[in-house]
Amino acid sequence: MKLQTITQATIVSHSILLTAAAGSIRGSDSGRVLGGLFGGSTRIIGGEAAIEDRYPYAVSLTDDFGHFCGGSLIARDVVLSAAHCDDQGEGAYKAVVGRHAHVDNDGQELSVRQALPHPNYDRVTTDNDFMLIFLNEAASDTINIVKLNTDAATPDIGSPVTVMGWGDIDPTDDGQVLSSELMEVEVNTISYEECDNSSGNSGSYQDSITSNMLCAREEGGGEDSCQGDSGGPLVIKGANPNGADDTQVGVVSWGIGCASADYPGVYARISSQYEWLRSELCARSNFAPSEFDCSNAAPPSTTTSSESGGSSVPSNNNDNDDDDDWNDDNTYFPTMQPTQSQADDDWNDDNNINFPTLQPTQSPQWR
């Protein structure tokens, strides 16, 4: 879902950078600037470079411009990512596995056979922000996949969880500086009530948090995922140094700003939609892991998907959808291209880049 360049300034994010209530989409776009090994900050927001091969299941989704979203390898031929990372028909992309730093040429670049967003994904509320990506080739059997959490009571409130990605490492920069190497940061989960009550100068999360979401933060701010980390895994780390007993509990989804003391990061909760993930993986993967117990899995539901990494439009079957949220061209609110009728006040004159203005309490923005 890519923003279009309106002026000579380069847009460097899949995210919508808002002029007032600054929510954030945690994906990235053309004009991406790599930091880390190129002399930028060596830290994700409050985090640090991951030990190489510690998270072998971490996946970078890349197109002609480079990295734009993250993902996790949950079967040798299946990547789990965020539905808002779907490429919207602007070119094929690949899943890169086994590569710690983007400046390297190791690992595997695997082509996409099919992208399958959750059928109840809601572009307005970002509910059910899950997408399964089925690959044409299988990843090496030497790469550890990550296990998915099935327990609704896990993780415990206040427990440490780890998020990783190649996203923005300096949210104070006007542009976006993506990390060249995989970064990680530890945050703590918070309760549904605390998350839904989050508010600050940029808006409120009130009535935006659903049972399909999980929130995590560092008390006082300073540590978080950010733009470019969308779709990446939130995990409970195990003792194995190669990630073999890590458990994924969430998918990087959205938030207002990055590493704010007022606003936690919001993740798609794995356990809430595990049965959908299981049924689709069992039906479509050629390498379904034994823990999915595919012989007893329910048949998949009817969904709309995209082939070869192109656009996919989820079914508009949410109970809370309103016809006014959709336009006749099947471009879903929030629109990525501003209309000519927007007032001058809607634009950020300082950076000469035009962005639509949204209220985060009405339409959360992805990371």
TrEMBL record:
The keyword Hydrolase applies. Residues 319-328 have a biased composition (Acidic residues). It comes from the Eukaryota. Gene3D superfamilies: Trypsin-like serine proteases. Residues 44-282 form the Peptidase S1 domain. Keywords: Disulfide bond, Hydrolase, Protease, Serine protease, Virulence. SUPFAM superfamilies: Trypsin-like serine proteases. Residues 332-342, 355-367 have a biased composition (Polar residues). GO terms for biological process: proteolysis. Coiled coil: none annotated. Residues 218-241, 296-367 are annotated as: Disordered. SMART domains: Tryp_SPc (SM00020). It comes from Skeletonema marinoi. Residues 299-318 have a biased composition (Low complexity). Belongs to the peptidase S1 family. This is Peptidase S1 domain-containing protein. GO terms for molecular function: serine-type endopeptidase activity.
